[in-house]
Records
---
Amino acid sequence: MFELHDHSWELIGLYSDAKAGHPPPDADVAEDLASLLSFRAVEASRYDADQALFHAPDYPGYVSRSLDGLQIYVPFPLARAFPGAQSLRDIVAFAVDIGIGTGAICISGSGAMSGTLHHLGDLDFCEYVFEAGDLMGIAALCDSASPSSRTALAAINCKGTVFIAPWDGIRDALEQLTRTGPPATPATHFLKLDYCAWCTTFGPIPATNRVLWLSRDDPEQGDALNSFAHQEAVIARGGSPVRTLISAERIGAYLVFLEREIAAYKDKNPVKALKRALSFSAVVGIEPWYKDAVRLLNHEAVGRTVRQRRFREFAELASSVAPHARSGPQAALQHAAKMTHYTWDTIEIVPDTVLDEITSLLNHISLTIESWGDYNELSS
Amino acid sequence: MTRESLIERIISLTDPPETEQVALEARLKELDDDRLVAMAEGLERLKTRGQERKRRFGPAVVARVEQDIAQVSAHFQSTLHRFDQMIAPDIFGADEESVPYGLARSKAVHDRPGGMMVGGRDVSRPGYQVHAPATGPRRDWAPRHQIFPGRTIPADVLTDALAQLEYRVRQENPAAFIAVNDEGLDVCKVIADDLNLSVLVDVVDGSARESLTWRSRVTDHRPAVGTAMVVGHFAWSGETLARAAKMTIERLHPKRICILVLACSQDALSRMESLTRALPPSEPLAGFEVPCLAADPDVTFGAHRVSITIEQDGYVFDMPDKSRSKILRTDLEKSRALLATQEHRSSEWRSG
């Protein structure tokens, strides 16, 4: 039977503390966590596809590499699944293309694990922004007359309102937004940009840039509470990681977030929920689950459902792209269809069976993890 | 405390798998003294915290959590097993260059044959660290449906068939990988690159041209050749395959040889019949396994394996693995009949 390491027990303890709303046991735990995270980073260094990630001693929990003059910082849970140079170069190119500012932009989601995960449904980014001017740059993106060769803006969700081409009202919405300053509390759907992206490595793929407007005084507060640095590989663009991984409270909150996402998505998007379970096992250190989740996520049965979803989403997004920029995503879709001899919405698979199987597994995982969160209360 | 004892202490506190300790030690040696001291002290305290958590949870909870982990693992396994029944497993080649369209894969660095690669660590080979390719990734790989130029094969059918083939290669974990030209070679190149196989031999229609490519980073860790795998195409005669196998045996002295025969023609099954006749009983080739992967009536793609094990006192018959492609199993009954015939023939050969 797999025996959890003592350090993992402390992480489960932090999870159950967070779930019960208890504060971390004491302030010193952060220092001890720094040692664990540093160790995890040392352990994970050079285990990426290129063996190019090295322990970043000044940023505990991060490993780091350079690529074409950019420094990239990868949190330990993502390190051994991080992509190698070739696909990373494409991912970074996307990031630079869709970034609205010039500061740190992060690779999150399965793109950051594409060194190990074969089947990508989308590419997620999040960008830290500190200046109102950067936010207004979004309006310029909407007005741009020259389409990019690899991305096309499809939609903007600004505080829950979705804008699409011809972008009526977006400038007013952004101006209103910037008047209030960075949100003091986490806001759902604060600002999210949806793109069609395409390249030879990934083919057509939906991409998202979640913009986090943070205060320089405390970049861990406000909208930052909606994201977790532990799942964001930072393309530093001249700087360093904006946020720290060493916070007992945030680690506990991250694990609670993962558990809740597993429960929330196990029926409607079980593949996404399974990735959350993968992240949970990576942070806590449940190696058997990690390996099995990777195997399952890489299974062709899952791959087909992911591809089906991905191309449907891409096609939907492409229909929202401004007419003058639509030829790029449409050509990418046509090329993909030609390459594969079938259209994405007619892939013959057994999605219900596959997804039902994963949901059943996730029900088990969800109940298991949830029950762990209750142990603290029971035992104290 | 000396650096060495600090490193020992950290390793003891973190208890990594034995196979990872050497690599971990090397990485820890790169840290300066202060960081090593801080890490050892912090890990020590955190271990104590973890133990305290366990004590507060109580032994029943501890046992329950570990039992939970085992039960979820078992659920994972059963799910994976059911998926394998549905469709060819696709667990190879954790990519550094992702998968355009989900059809082509490039060089794998993580999951190599043996199935136990984790982030560059080959946990199936204790003490060994497999390094990333020195020469960089292969860049001229082709999407899989282009492997058979001029043939009209539905991409999903081919993808599944190749996934099946890779699965077999992976299961065999060959130390040598031999291609018999043409499509066989093309397939081998892609798969060998995917799986980072150590040896690639080209045999062009039995002619003199041949090449032997040793990949030193792997052969360093493989002093002896275990299984050699020969991959050929049905278009090539059984004689050619037999020659390739013989040459492999002579040059590499494998303990075991496995022949994979690819077919993407309408009369693949009849060719299989021809092949088995062409293999001379005097050659050390006996024992056949025919997991037929027939597609639709117009297109048949097969990854037929002829597997033998060379031992002092005879040959051991290998059982086929049970995974089948849902799409490609329409002709399974026919293959079973053929398998029965071959088992009979194989038995006759062995009995002399």
---
Amino acid sequence: MTVDEEQIEGTANEASPTRRRRALDAVDERLGVTALQYPVPEHANNLAWSLGGITAATLLILIGTGIFLAQWYNPAPEQANASVRYLMTHVWGGQFIRGVHYWAAQVMYVLAALHLLRIFFSGSFKRPREANWLIGVAMFALIIGAIFTGTVVKWDQEGFEALGHNLEISRLLGGLGFWFSPKLAGDTSILGRLYIAHIVIIPSLILGLLALHAMLVKRHGISPHPVLGDTLAEPREPFTHHLRRIGAFALVVAGLIGIAAILRPPGIGPTPVEGIEVTRPPWMFWWLFTLENWVGLKGILWGTAALFALLIAVPFVDRGPERYWRRRPIATAIGIVVILLIVVLTVLMAISTPAQHLA
Amino acid sequence: MVHLTRSPHWPRWGVVLGVLVAVLALATPASAHGGDESSEADVLVRQAIALIVNTPNDTMTIEDKIADALRDKDSTTVDLKLVAKAKAELAKGDIHRTRAYLEASIGARPHTDVGHLHPIRITDSPLAKREVQAALDRATGAESGTNVAIEGLPADRTHDSGTWLGLVAMIAIVIIGATLSIRYRPPVAVRDVKAADRDEEQGR
């Protein structure tokens, strides 16, 4: 290669990144993506502090697989169960995608619960982040709602009994339970309304609250580490590095969900019949059903109300400046007691047989 | 000098509370532990079949449903003779024949061939009439839309080459994700920052 040719080559190499730079600048000018590079404390990149982001990643998986499943699902009561069977047996990849949806929902529930516990034990809900805690609690309730409606829409005996419980609880609530009343739109099936809730209402609310949640994280910044506080010794990294690590964790989670969907794909239960009660609900509702076995259907209502009342009360009761869990013995003790209670009630349900409660 | 004072308002929280109490007052007591059970043979036979499908070992509950169905002597929609045969088969412990007789009693096609079984003519059966009616009246409210329960469908767990390929792809995704998460981990651990903080304080 001659000197002239080398010079031309060199000039081309220099021009290339400039063009790339210019392209990136053009995108940034219009979308403002560099705003994401604001500094965050380095502890934000730890796994425990990335749980919220990984939960959001599972939401994307659920939306993607849900769109696929919706193409074959028929929300008419006479056809719903059969349409799921058709999807499992006749649609290429149907069983796998349904398996991914099924496992991703459970992983999302676990990740959201762990994220909530991390926030609680590291005192991240404290001033000025109380509103964001409440938004997070609302999103957790919506995730439970999504799992409940998802259980019902497959329209097997398990899902139908879950719906039956909810109808009874809505009667206990009187006027407040109007949406769950089959009489609200008596000439249509409640399955159709629950399906709309599952694919439109609940995901829209979750996405709306997620946007608000993320906006408030940006507004208040990543909460300080409970031990380090706002120390200057802690290095800062761009928020994009936080997103990058969340992406890496999300890949691991997505792969594990895929493995579970291949090795343990979900089946579907028998077509539902009114008036019998023979199934157990999904495991995340077991603790409530132990309460039901003890005190009847109102146990589910009071158990749920008590848990969410406690969660809502957290930022109003635990208001001291201390964030480290060891220095908040009362809050920590209450948190541990509640967790143990839920675990014990869940185990009790696992070893008992379902009892008849529905009319 | 004008003193601006807040004019007395209606106690707004009181209004909200009042509305809430009024709404809750509309509550009707929900029944728990039992409640009204159907006495129609047709419904009870369907429930007995569903119990056989779901909990075949719970013969006591199945027996109760069959006995209750037999009490509906005036039923025009169920062949009670076949229900009685089902009861006899259950006593012998043959759950398949029990189910087949129950299915035949409401005009459904028996799930298994038990021989010597003469179900009522399907065109005369309540099931056929129901199906015709169902075509006109779809299930509404909280109706299940099911006539006769059919078994659940377990997932297909046979592993072909596609399964193994998918599994390898998923394991690769896990490995790539794990590698990247290690590569992108924070260069300074929290304990290092804590130690640096401590050193700084001691230095002062």
